[in-house]
Amino acid sequence: MATSIATPATADIRAEDPAAIVDLPLTRKFSFERDALEEIQLRALQLRFAALADRVPVLARFAEEQKLSRIERLEDGALLLFPHTMYKSYPLSAMEKGRFDQLTRWLGTLTAIDLGGVDCAGLETIDAWIDRLDAETELRLRHSSGTTGKLSFVPQSRAEAITSIKGIKRSFESFGDEDGPHTHDGIDLGELPLIAFGYRHGSQSFPRSIQAIVDYYYGGDESRVLCLDPSRISADMASLAGRLEGAQARGAVGRIQLSPGLMAQRERFLREQEEAPRHREAFFDALATRYRGARVVLKGVLPPTVEAMCAGVARGLEGLFAPDSIFFMAGGDKGRALPPGYREQVERFTGLPFPPQGYGMSEAASAITRMCPRGHYHIVPNLIPYLIDPDSGAILPRLGRATGRLGIFDIACETRWGGFLTGDEVMLDFGDETPCRCGRRGSYIAGPIRRYGALRGGDDKITCAGAPGLHDRALAFIGAASA
Amino acid sequence: MGFHVPLIIRGRIVEGDTLRFAMRRDGAAFETPDVRRHIHALPLADPADLADIHALSTEEIIAFLAALGRELRLDRNPHLQEAYALSVRSSGLTGGIVRHLYATLGDLFSAAFIRELADNAIGIDYLDGWVPRPMANGCVCNIRAFGARAVHVLAGNVPMPSALGIIRNAITRSDAIFKTPSNDPATAAAIARTMIAMDPDHPVTRHLSIAYWKGGDEAVEAELYRPDRIEKIIAWGGQASITHIARYIQPGIDLITMDPKLSSSIVGREAFADDRSMHDAAVRLALDIAYFNQQACANSRVTYVETGTDAAGLAAANRFGTLLFDAIQALPETCSAAAPLDTALAEEVQALRLASFDHKVIGGGAEGAVILSQIDEPVDFAPLLNNRVANLVPIDDLDIAVRSVTSYTQSIGIYPDALKERLRDRLVFNGAQRLVSLGYACKAAMAGPHDGMEPLRRMCKWISDESNDPSVVPLLSSPKATTDAQPRNEFA
Fold first, then answer.
1. What is the distance between the alpha carbons of residues B189 and B11, in angstroms, rounded to a whole number?
2. Distance (Å, rounded) from C-alpha B153 to C-alpha B188?
3. Are A149 and B357 in contact (CB < 8 Å)?
4. Tens of pLDDT, residues B50-106
5. Distance of alpha carbon A348 from the chain centroid
6. Residues of the domain holding A322
7. Could you give the 3-state DSSP secondary structure of residue B32?
8. A42, A36 contact by CB (below 8 A)
9. Given an 8 Å threshold on Cβ–Cβ distance, is A84 in contact with B357?
10. pLDDT at residue A445 in the model
11. How many CB atoms lie within 10 A of CB B469?
């Protein structure tokens, strides 16, 4: 049934801080009148453009090419959507040759954070480069899984990482007085223990979020967080895995050169691989003892979470958590086949109903949204959605319902340009003529989401999921390489 | 809009029981009879039925094919017109090029070319009869090339594989079942229908079948790909088509693959000696890149230019890039024409233009683009280059170009010819399969080897008939045999 709610005043969102909209209660987020929301969004788009056009060189060039000197209408944002290729437009060889000065210079064109003072001397691995950026700047770089041969790097700031987890926290909330799996009493992150089905450390989205959650919601208390793998998912391994994929496609695997820096880390990678089964044992032991019957927050991405939970059921672990636990699952199948009956396995393992799935994209500061009871993904209000004709690139009218490629401008991005093109084909309903009957206002995705990349036979979405298969192959390669 | 494509089995047109299939590009569909209902008629049941075509001389076959070529005129052949209409919609090429390809398809059947092909690739003597070859030990080994029962899994990016397949099949006196591709189900059928109109009972007509089924359809392939039904599979199209076929490969079935390949170019320092040479090289390179809108395996994607990578070298390479871009734009529309880039490629080019310090980009829209690397490396997305998007890579040392060659490389166009001779052996060791004067990458010597092999020879069964006179060649049991200076020819 539709929920009636009071319309919040737009004055809640101060003009100079559009990112605050991410931390509004979920009910409020989806209660904006269209005009009021668009007013906030346009103001924010103008603010971001004015602030970033001089500080993000790529944006300046793009705007010049589009002959855009200022933003007048919401539609102008659609002229400045970065393709995903923008975040991997560095030469791969720079990585292979350890030219981290060159990479830093490139990265500097995509962010307003000043990287000019970063000293890249002595850096031999991507992991070390990212650590250096973490140590010396506000940048908290996120990279993709490298499934098609090259890592993408999204230059997220520390503040944006916090914004991102605020969005995650709000996404757990119920809308209005909706019940079912959405219901909960407001107790969540920071109060309940967090069980995360992924790596604890690393610079992919998932471990970056875990780090931000630990810092922001748990005051740095690691003991409240349990990860499936306590180690680091290495950017070097992801990059090597990607290069192996690419080299295989070119018939040139034998020519992959491993940098001395990577070879020096070889023993560590192999040792971590050996330890992985023990980590998993420890994870399941903790669930079976310390967390059995406890009220927890479960967080994971579909394929690795399903895989781990099925393995848990195979060990006889069932009905582990208190029924009022919070269960958050993001992502689609990422092209990986899931075992038959996996939903039942997940329910057996957790003792909880299979959760409504989430949809998001790592290019945004905060995009995560959970499927509503009517089966739709509603676009959170910090995102301005656009529909683009996939062939002509024309911008479709922001009215009614149409199918096209989804473009997004995220007003919560502060240090990089928030406009990007997703690789997703969606049927988007702008919510003006046929609002969703769940009662949420605004735009929503009204049909299945299809990946253009998958349609073309390749895919390198910047996912929050690791790609363990690839990671293993990279480890096997580095293991076979003579030291 | 629907198209109808018949099933053709050895000179007979089969209709009825149609299935509908989507074509690759624009959602158009075609219908064709369900091959599963005719699967038992498709293979040549009795291999002895190949006798009729072996009774023909090569000249008789050439005469028939040449007459066929004269009938393949786009202005008056309704079957070809239909195939053309379908191909215009399904192929990735622009209308002017597709029209040119169909308008000149008949030329491929010229008697002079086919004679040259038969003689160069196999030897007409070996096709027309037994050729006696005296061995050093006194044995006379009579050798003849026989036809085989084959399936050709065709690629559909251009109509030539269909025509070439028909010529190769006729010359080798084989029996072919063509499995047509979904983006060109009609060209081979159009040629076969023209043959039927000429003479439905001619042995060349009677040893050609044209069918479409969805690649991987077990009901068809498990029945067909058996050593008692076919002996050779000639597969275009690489991994996608091989994946289906691989499971049926077993002793008795010979797989000949025509893999997808990528090609490149090397322009030596001589081209930059003066304006005239530079212009000449640019015009030639433009053809190697842009002919067929860079859709063919022979089209160059990455060009290594020996300008050096210092400031003067980069300036020369960049200036050459401008000449190249202009030369591509100046090509006639029967060769090449502006066409929208694939989204994936367009986004790669856009990202380099906006965000790379290491590349300059000329163009980038439907007119195509020249990406000027400012480092001695090709772009990371080089395999995606098509629709007239080229990448120029300046180098100090030709060794960089040589080492870039892999087993996926087909042609390398080189300027000048003297450089080609200097580099050729090393290029081949790295994987190159064809070296060619710059500007001629798309004008292949078709009577020569193909993708590093001689497919016509492999399409044949090479049979020996050995005559031995015991007074010349002692029997193996003879005491003389063991002291024979010749290697013993015993098989344990």
1. 11
2. 12
3. no
4. 999 999 999 999 999 999 999 999 999 999 999 999 888 877 778 888 899 899 999
5. 28
6. 10-480
7. strand
8. no
9. no
10. 96
11. 9
Q: Tell me if B125 sits within 8 A of B19, measured CB to CB.
A: no
Cα separation, A329 vs A277, whole angstroms: 23
Q: Does a structural domain hold residue A107? A: yes
Q: Which two tokens stand for residue A246?
A: 């690419």
Tallying the residues shown for chain B, one arrives at 492
Owner of token pair 């310090």 = B357
Q: What is the CATH number of domain B2-258?
A: 3.40.605.10
Q: How many residues does chain A have?
A: 483
Give just the sign of the alpha carbon dihedral B323, B292, B332, B277: positive
Residue A315 has pLDDT above 70, yes or no: yes
* Shortest alpha-carbon distance between residue A101 and chain B (Å): 12
Q: What is the DSSP letter of B263?
A: E
Helix (H) or strand (E) segment spanning residue B280: helix B275-290
Furthest-apart CA atoms within chain B: distance in Å = 84
Distance CA A483, CA A472 (A): 18
Looking at chain B, which residues constitute the CATH 3.40.309.10 domain(s)? Answer: 263-437
B394, B317 Cβ separation under 8 angstroms: yes
Using CA atoms, how far residue B392 sits from A23, B50, B348, B424, in Å, is 49, 52, 16, 21
A41 CA to chain B: closest CA distance, Å?
26
Residues of B in contact with A251 (CB under 8 A): 406-408, 431
Pick the residue of B343, B357, B403, B410 with the most A CBs within 10 A to test the interface with A by mutation.
B343
A4-21 per-position pLDDT tens digit: 344 444 455 677 889 999
Contact A82, A62 (CB under 8 A): yes
Q: Which residues contact A290 (CB under 8 A, 6 or more apart)?
A: none
ipTM surpasses cut 0.85: no
Question: For residue B430, how far is the Cα from the chain centroid?
Answer: 21
Residues of chain A with Cβ-Cβ distance to B358 below 8 Å are 91
Q: B355 and A86 in contact by Cβ < 8 A?
A: yes
Residues of B with CB under 8 A from a CB of A: 340, 343-344, 347-348, 350-358, 375, 377, 379-380, 383, 406-408, 431
Residues of A302-335 as b/e, b for ≥16 C-beta within 10 angstroms? bbbbbbbbbebbeeebeebbeeebbbbbbbbebe
Which ranges of A109-221 would DSSP assign to H, the alpha helix? 126-136, 158-171, 205-217
A323 within domain boundaries: yes
CATH number of B263-437: 3.40.309.10
Q: How far apart are CA A477 and CA A474, in angstroms?
A: 5
Q: Is residue A3 a part of any domain in this protein?
A: no
CATH of the domain at A419: 3.40.50.12780
- Average pLDDT of the residues of chain A: 86
Contacts of B383 in chain A (CB under 8 A): 249-250
CA-to-CA dists, residue B214 to B19, B155, B167, B224, angstroms? 11, 13, 25, 14
Q: Please report the number of interchain residue pairs, chain A to chain B, with beta-carbon separation below 8 angstroms.
A: 66
Tens digits of per-residue pLDDT, B256-308?
988 778 899 999 999 999 999 999 999 999 999 999 888 888 899 999 999 99
Residues 6+ apart with CB under 8 A from B311: none
Question: Which of B347, B350, B380 lies nearest to residue A150, judging by beta carbons?
Answer: B380
Q: Do the bridges between strand B368-373 and strand B389-394 make them parallel or antiparallel, or are there none, so unpaired? A: parallel
The number of domains in chain A is 1
Contacts of B379 in chain A (CB under 8 A): 91
Residues of chain B with CATH 3.40.605.10: 2-258
* A2 falls within a domain: no
**Backbone dihedral region of A104: left (phi > 0), alpha (psi from -120 to 50 degrees) or beta?**
alpha
- Tokens for B44, please give them: 């040549």
Cα(B245)–Cα(B255) distance, integer angstroms: 9
SS3 at position A390: coil
